[in-house]
């Protein structure tokens, strides 16, 4: 998600932030504003850099498509087990 001056003046100019959002806080805020928690990312690689919590205007947020492909971690369930009715 791109967070820039449209979401909050603190992210204007070179202070714009790419944020991979991990949660949206449900605490009450001003109308049209929200607390987001996530990781600032390197847009070119998708690498998470630092954990951030930001207070922004919802109308100023811009969802961006992923530039890197990632696959979810594969769960290793191990061998299938069958009951033997013992």
What does the main sheet amount to? 4 strands, antiparallel
Count of runs of 4 or more consecutive helical residues: 0
Q: Please state roughly what percent of the residues sit in beta strands, choosing from under 5%, 5-15%, 15-25%, 25-35%, 35-45% or over 45%.
A: 25-35%
Strand order of the largest sheet: 1-2-3-4
Quote the average pLDDT.
Answer: 83
Number of strands: 4
From the alpha carbons, calculate the radius of gyration and give it in angstroms: 19 Å
The helix/strand series, from N terminus to C terminus, equals EEEE
* Percent range of helical residues: under 10%
Structural class: mainly beta
List the uncertain runs.
none
Shape: globular
Distance between the termini: 55 Å
3D structure, described in words:
The structure is a single chain. The chain has a domain at 2-60. With 86 residues, it is mainly beta. The chain contains no helices and 4 strands. The model has no long low-confidence stretch (mean pLDDT 83). Strands 1-2-3-4 form a 4-stranded antiparallel beta sheet, with no helix packed on it.
Summarize the structure.
With 86 residues, the chain is mostly beta strands.
């Amino acid at each position: 998600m791109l967070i820039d001056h449209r979401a909050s003046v603190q992210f204007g100019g070179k202070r714009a932030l790419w944020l991979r959002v991990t949660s949206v806080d449900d605490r009450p805020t001003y109308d049209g504003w929200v607390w987001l928690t996530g990781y600032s990312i390197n847009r070119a690689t998708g690498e998470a850099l630092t954990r951030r919590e930001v207070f922004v205007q919802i109308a100023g947020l811009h969802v961006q498509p992923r530039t890197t492909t990632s696959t979810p971690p594969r769960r290793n369930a191990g061998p299938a087990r069958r009951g033997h009715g013992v």
